[in-house]
UniProtKB/TrEMBL annotation:
Protein name per Swiss-Prot or TrEMBL: Related to beta-galactosidase
Keyword Membrane: no
Keywords: Glycosidase, Hydrolase
Organism of derivation: Phialocephala subalpina
One of the protein's GO biological processes: carbohydrate metabolic process
Residues covered by the DUF5597 domain: 416-546
Superkingdom classification of source: Eukaryota
The keyword Hydrolase is assigned to this record: yes
Lineage summary: Eukaryota, Fungi, Dikarya, Ascomycota, Pezizomycotina
Spans through the membrane: none
GO molecular function: beta-galactosidase activity
Cellular compartments per GO CC: beta-galactosidase complex
Location of the Glycoside hydrolase family 42 N-terminal domain: 70-219
Amino acid sequence: MVLQQDPSHDVPYTVPRPIETAAEKTIPHLRKTKTSSQLIVNGKPFLMLAGELHNSSLSDPAYMRIVWPNMKAANINTLLGSITWEMIEPVEGHFNFSFLDQILLDAREFDMKIVLLWFGSFKNALSTYAPGWVKRDVKRFPRVHALEAGGVMKTLELVSPFCEEGSKADGKAFAALMRHLKEFDSDHQTVIMVQVENETGLLGDSRDRSRLANQKFKQPVPTEVISHLQSQYDEEVHSLFRKRFPEFKNLTAGEATWEDAFGKGVDADEMFMADAFSRYVGQVAAAGKAEYPIPLYTNVWLNFDDPSVLDLQGLPIVVGGGAKAGIYPSGGGVPHTMDVWKLNAPALDFIAPDLYFHDYEEVCKQYRHQNQPLFIPEQRRDERGARRVWLAYGTYLGIGCSPFGIDSLEASVSPITKHYGLLNSVSSIVLEAQVNRPEDIMGFFFDEVSETKVEKPWVRSFGEFELTIDRAFVFGKPGPGAGMIIHQGDGKFLLIGWGFQVTFKSTNPKSTFTGILYSEEKTVSAEGKLHTARVMNGDETRSGSFYIMPNEDPDYGGFPIAVTIPSRTMIAECTAYSIEEEEEDF
């Protein structure tokens, strides 16, 4: 047990620390918690306040020297950037890491952590980042062939996932990269994770129609795949797999073909490709993990079953991913194929969703499958996207979120700057709650008011109180908001964020009254310690009715009395209480 100071009351509390091996202490790793995992960097828990660069940004150290200070000003502590197979191994067997070394040296100057994106064989369902010597040699590295409308066979710039030479060559290059990172960076831990490939799968058809693929499609489903899915079907297999394949548990193992197991058509094709792609990526990941076992993951281009759940805001439905395998990458790690990926690619520590237009909370739930950690490697960089990170970090214990294209957005106008600034100031408190009290932390957001969408409050019970979180009350036009609540025990709650208000209700059936006992605005020091600022009882709680975390500039709607004070620190502590009365007390 490690004795620490409570960040709000200077009272010692104990934090359990699992025993770690010497090797784990010296490199970035994931430490298991009660219900998830936490990222450990330089021996300490680390909350990634991340952003993903444009695809080509990390290839030029000179360009990045313009980027670093802007990213620092945006309160970003981790950047995701691609490193490509074609740049690392332009000639087979000859590796070049000089530009990467300079990038890492410059990142250290700005105390910036890096997540490398390995664009090897697959990037967005193509092989455009593979070296020229791979692209030209179709005998050694055969391509995927897709069937177009009218029965026309088309050759794609996509290495077939059935190509053993491809996974072997990609794995060799990835191993060289990881070996170099261990030698060059393990003492500094600049690189804290690596993404293996990017949005893997096949676009334009539901499966590979090449001669090699057709032969394998006729073969039985590997026994270990059927056995694994059936053995975990009732409890461990993803709910969306069970929904899609309700009779799979009753399948007779043995000589079942893909169509026997998953039905004729697109579903069988997709599961066939998921098995192939996951084995390929799993072999590449294993080769790198053997050299330097820092956290590895892969990311996913999402699908949708019901387009009504998409948050398109007038954009065409095509941006939402796709409802049919082949419109979205067939064989990628979408929820209903995720268990095949986890079986075939155990060197991946988790699978992560690229989350732009889907229901944010629903996807967070889906990718916490089997208590794997949540990381959002790509998401929107606008205000709408920035609000949602509170839900990921709070309710779903996210280790990081990463708005895409972050380097072409100035920190002075970026919504990320404000959100990450507040999160950074309370990161030690958030990390402590994530690991020790996951049931006591939640995040939420409120978008701009919609005339067509019925808004529901966020409701959650903590201990003896039920909390209802609504949009902050104003006389004029209600504004957006976002934040987090952390239950500290005994009816005491830490409120972080703006644009919301909290009402407390006792869950004790004998309670006759619930109110606010005491509330304070808090400031936070550079060390993450909370200190009391203004006492906020009385009018600032609407006489004990609820506690309001207002926006920075409340809209009074022309009302002449400024009854709502502007938000200042965006951090408060509020203690709720309830009473029980006997009949004679009335």
